[in-house]
Inverse folding.
């Protein structure tokens, strides 16, 4: 079953119920090795849509289950964390998507460029196959405009044990956990 942007509604969770569930889930979990994660877009332009309630491209109030990160078309997409490619798909909402499992975490990457054929995703010279291990920071795709998209961006979503998390909160926790770098004059 594809993990599209509407997965939350398939689980029967309304936007408010999902927000309450995520708000009650601490980002600083007992296993904090995720703090070594990698920002998933190599050429960041802006955050264009946060996690949570929003007015969607159709002008209707909806829950947005991830973080949209604008980047130039074709920009490299990197795996946030090491894991195994669990699935890939093409649908009308997420477009071309890749789902990676990292222990109890799943991270979803939507609106990719390229093509999906069966259990294989290709984009240029890149080829991913279901069951393939990936390292944190490894190239796993390119920014596209597939699916329900108004411009080139990555829709990045993360769940932990089936609970959706706010990727921006995870990025902030990652930034806080790393030693600050002193800039010398």
């Amino acid at each position: 079953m594809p993990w599209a942007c509407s997965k939350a509604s398939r689980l029967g969770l309304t936007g408010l119920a999902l927000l309450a569930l995520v708000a009650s889930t601490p980002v600083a979990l007992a296993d904090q090795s995720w703090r070594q994660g990698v920002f998933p877009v190599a050429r960041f332009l802006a955050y264009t849509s946060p996690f949570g309630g929003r007015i969607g491209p159709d002008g209707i109030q909806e829950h947005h289950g991830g973080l949209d990160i604008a980047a130039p078309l074709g920009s490299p997409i990197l795996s946030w964390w090491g894991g195994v490619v669990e699935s890939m798909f093409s649908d009308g909402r997420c477009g071309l998507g890749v789902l990676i499992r990292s222990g109890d975490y799943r991270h979803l990457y939507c609106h990719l460029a390229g093509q999906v054929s069966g259990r294989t995703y290709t984009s240029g010279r890149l080829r991913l196959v279901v069951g393939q291990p990936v390292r944190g920071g490894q190239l796993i795709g390119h920014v596209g405009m597939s699916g329900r998209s108004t411009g080139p961006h990555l829709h990045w979503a993360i769940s932990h044990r089936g609970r959706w998390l706010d990727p921006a909160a995870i990025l902030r926790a990652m930034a806080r956990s790393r030693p600050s770098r002193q800039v010398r004059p």
